Amino acid sequence: MSMILVVAQRIPYPPNKGEKLRTYHHIKRMVESGYEVEVVSLRHDDSDNELASALAKHLNISVRLFSMQPKLLRYAKALAKFQAMSVAAFESKQLKDYILNKVASSSNIDSIYLSASSLAPYILNSQLNDNQTLKLNMDFMDVDSDKWNQYAQSSAWPMSCIYAREAKKIKLLEQKTLARFDHVFLIADAEITLFEQSVSKTKPVHKLGNGLDFDAFPPGKPEDKSNTPVYLFTGVMDYKPNIDAVVWFVEECWDTIKSKIPNARFVIAGMNPSAQVQALTRIDGVEVTGFVEDILPYYHSAWVFVAPFRLARGVQNKVLQASACRIPIVTTPMGAEGIPFATPNSMYFAESSAQFADNCIQAVQDQQQATDKAQQVYEAITATYSWETQLTPLMKALSS
């Protein structure tokens, strides 16, 4: 039986946010296809030990964790070595040595799969870079160098300089990875186009879209919906694009919405809300939940899902989840990137804050139109977005 060694930034369990969700389903599909899988990852805190055990039991696979040096020491070394901070964030000599020894001692390891660009040095900066028999697979997911460029352009000094440095370092890493790895994946056609324009087009990059677990996100019943209009945003709320999205929505759109719909509520549901996000609760009608055990009731109670993204890359899982729950969606073009069924006929699109607010109002005041749009999205996503369908390119690459 062929073995795949999966190298992940974090334990991909539970599959409750973008990166973890994607990698978890990749591993699950590998196991279902008959591969022997071992997952190696970094220990960020003590709770990771329990998560590693839970993942191993859930998928009946081997999962190992490796320690890192203190964060400040890793970052200081990164500066001294002119290295990307993203690489330092996931650097472990223990893990590097284990990967080398594992490949050397196991004749049945056919492939190594890495879940992020920041992990590429585990191959590029080791003896494995010269191993021509090992199949190397990289899931970039998004164009990280462009993300850091966006951060640089939207931030004041000195962070703008730090982000610009990171963008340059990651771009070089992306170029080296493309040149060395057998298969490189991005989440959407738009990401591939961006990569070819801004990073490299010396070799093909393959599309590997996200799927959805429809059993986990079924549509709600009419009685589940809140009695008062609820606008919903979900996500990890210490993540810069999510923070920017909800702050912009509240500061630029919420007053206009409240002037037309005085009893409207905006619910921000997600773990680790930053101080900036928590401060939004001072505004009338804005609620911040923090971590919730079950996100589904929040989707079912919502009248409208908002995706006011201005900083983002790739496909937003939250938009897919809202689509499966048959909720009308108001989004910026960036919020719907990479979703082929996202059109003005199926979602409310807005570029400006005025247009975004107007669309939010319309989605509540014209319930028939909103329902029709949500139904179009629901029919499209259920027809094309199973994980099995979306992961066909990955399975083809692993078997080639």
CATH superfamily of the largest domain: Glycogen Phosphorylase B
Q: Report the β-strand fraction as a percent range.
A: 15-25%
Shape assignment: globular
Q: Specify the helix fraction band.
A: 40-55%
CATH level-1 class of the largest domain = Alpha Beta
Number of domains: 2
By DSSP, the count of extended strands is 13
Q: How are the strands of the largest sheet arranged? A: 3-2-1-4-5-6-7
CATH architecture of the largest domain: 3-Layer(aba) Sandwich
The radius of gyration computed from the alpha-carbon positions, rounded to a whole number of angstroms, is 22 Å
Low-confidence stretches: none
Residue-averaged pLDDT, rounded? Answer: 96
From the N-terminal CA to the C-terminal CA, the straight-line distance is 15 Å
CATH topology of the largest domain: Rossmann fold
Number of helices: 18
- What structural class do the secondary elements suggest? alpha/beta
Describe the structure using short key phrases.
400 residues, alpha/beta, Rossmann fold, 2 domains, seven-stranded parallel beta sheet, six-stranded parallel beta sheet, 18 helices
Kindly describe this structure.
With 400 residues, this protein is of the alpha/beta class. The protein folds into two domains: 3-211 and 386-399, Rossmann fold, CATH 3.40.50.2000; 222-384, Glycogen Phosphorylase B (Rossmann fold), CATH 3.40.50. The chain is 46% helix and 15% strand. The chain contains 18 helices and 13 strands. The protein has helices spanning 18-32, 47-59, 71-80, 85-88, 93-105, 121-124, 144-154, 159-180, 189-198, 240-252, 254-260, 275-278, 296-301, 317-324, 353-365, 367-384, 387-390, 392-399; strands at residues 3-8, 36-42, 62-66, 109-114, 135-141, 183-186, 206-207, 230-234, 265-269, 286-290, 304-307, 329-331, 348-349. It has a seven-stranded parallel sheet with strand order 3-2-1-4-5-6-7, with helices on both faces. A six-stranded parallel sheet has the order 10-9-8-11-12-13, sandwiched between helices. α6 links the parallel β4 (109-114) and β5. The longest helix has 22 residues, at 159-180. The radius of gyration is 22 Å and the shape is globular. It starts with a strand and ends with a helix. The model has no long low-confidence stretch (mean pLDDT 96).
